[in-house]
Amino acid sequence: KTWTLCLLLLLGVGLGSLEALPPPCDSQIYCYGDLLHQVQMAKLFPDDKEFVDMPLSMAPDQVLLSFGELAKAHNYSIPRQQLQEFVTKHFQAARQELQSWIPGDWKDSSQFLQKITDAKLRAWAEELHQLWKKLGKKMKPEVLSHPEWFSLIYSQHPFIVPGGRFAEFYYWDSYWVMEGLLLSEMPETVKGMLQNFLDLVKSYGHIPNGGRVYYLQRSQPPLLTLMMDRYVTHTNDITFLLENIETLALELNFWTEKRSINVSSGGKSYILNRYYVPYGGPRPESYSKDAELADTLQEGDREALWAELKAGAESGWDFSSRWFSGGPNSNSLSSTRTSKIVPVDLNAFLCQAEELMSNFYSRLSGNDSQAAQYRNLRAQRLTALTAILWDEEKGACFDYDFENGKKNPEFYPSNLTPLWASCFSDPAIADKALKYLEDNQILTYKYGIPTSLQKSSQQWDFPNAWAPLQDLVIRGLAKLPSPQAQEVAFQLAQNWIRTNFDVYSKTSTMYEKYDISNGGQPGGGGEYQVQEGFGWTNGVVLMILDRYGDRLTSGAWPALRKPHCLVVTLLLSLLTI
Ligand SMILES: *[C@@H]1O[C@H](CO)[C@@H](O)[C@H](O)[C@H]1NC(C)=O
Ligand SMILES: *[C@@H]1O[C@H](CO)[C@@H](O)[C@H](O)[C@H]1NC(C)=O
Ligand SMILES: *[C@@H]1O[C@H](CO)[C@@H](O)[C@H](O)[C@H]1NC(C)=O
């Protein structure tokens, strides 16, 4: 006993800064500790997430005891073969605690399908409507009776998952999934998912990134209030809203209390929000990658990098040159410093949530003082956004690096989130948004809006395009009074539908992301293989088909492109004369 203690102490001293920050959760198997370290560093599985998704086959105390004995028998360096045997004996196959579930409110058809005039697109939409049955999951009762045997966090109600390695719920993904579910006329499924999220807020004070204990200390872009708004608008279930309005407020408090930052400019100080996860250690689900990445750094800097990577995961953009800093390691993942940046999209999401809360309180619950408080918060945020993030000349908002006191001038679709979130005060923003897209030549990308113009090999960068980012820009422009902006929105929608439809025609699969550099194909880059399914991709396609179903075509590309090119060339030659 004493010897083990000494060894652990020595280990602790040796690893030094490992103790500086608390671990990402308190499970000594799924979140931190020697068992996790040895198994993940031995790379028993191609993807580190596999191991932390495996349920135990006996109580955690027994597993730890048995691991302690094994470690001692091998002088604390267990050979791979023995580790493999240990895992096989003490763990069950990954994700078997989740069972497939056919949503009770699923039915053969849905009204919106009738709006789609192109027969091929309509047949495709019918297949996507079927996919909810493949992406539905419920938990085995053991997750409730023996939570300590699982990394899965218990949820009472079944839910829709993204797909592939993402077999549990994810926070911001669920918003676009819910939009799709409402089009498929499945409000009961949406309500169950909402209840799960509200329960999590009651238990933890916030919604974790995803439904596993190792995601507990980080959240994801805050869209819960919007989810509730969409559900209530669809169902008119005001009772449900009023029962839960305090919980919505609690979730927003988390962002105010734990994710605020004071930014000063021109002698004034403003409060805005950021992604920030002050927990140490490698991410359990990408443990060996994080550990190896940190090997390139001085020991004292490793903990900080791991916290920044978790903040990157919290942003939903994991990972991206958007979070890289300049400096010696610029353009590399190890220069990630997410928490030093005030992101446009996060603040626009919160601005929208504040608007919705003030409406909920004034119109539905008749609580004028609370309504006024959220109106004030929104007004303060608009002032801060205009002072710190907005660039009048460029016509968009930009992420702000508050340590270096400067905006990031790069193009990201997220820079237009204030349009989507109706969070701006200057009506001239419509023309400016179009100019911003043209200046960055975004409309020349025919297969989808790129995530950035940087080729970093990270998955939230060029040449990948993601469904939620298409939605941010398309619906942002479509909201504007300018007919030109609305026409561009349609064109972008048509581009995205063609890419998704073409890939589906060839592969019968919907992907989490697409590579737009090579005619549109499944995306790549980042930490894991491209995943199939796929919750938010399906949701966004259904939303676009619902909105523009009478105009969209599945037809061949060149028909539209050639005359378009001709016009552009003509215009350009006129200009040069
Ligand atoms: C056990 O490992 C330590 C340090 O790695 C080493 O000094 C020691 O000789 C080893 N003992 C045996 C019995 O192999
Ligand atoms: C921001 O700064 C002001 C003035 O320096 C201070 O009163 C306030 O408490 C700070 N707020 C936060 C969230 O740090
Ligand atoms: C308004 O909401 C606040 C916060 O929940 C509560 O303390 C207050 O009593 C409510 N006021 C009215 C008039 O309902």
Automatic annotation (TrEMBL):
GO terms for molecular function: alpha,alpha-trehalase activity. Intestinal trehalase is probably involved in the hydrolysis of ingested trehalose. PROSITE patterns: TREHALASE_1, TREHALASE_2. Keywords: Glycoprotein, Glycosidase, Hydrolase, Signal. It comes from the Eukaryota. Belongs to the glycosyl hydrolase 37 family. It is an enzyme of class 3 (hydrolase). It catalyses: alpha,alpha-trehalose + H2O = alpha-D-glucose + beta-D-glucose. Residues 1-20 form the signal peptide. InterPro entries: 6-hairpin_glycosidase_sf, 6hp_glycosidase-like_sf, Glyco_hydro_37, Glyco_hydro_37_CS. One of its GO terms (biological process) is trehalose catabolic process. Pfam families: Trehalase. This is Trehalase. Its EC number is 3.2.1.28.
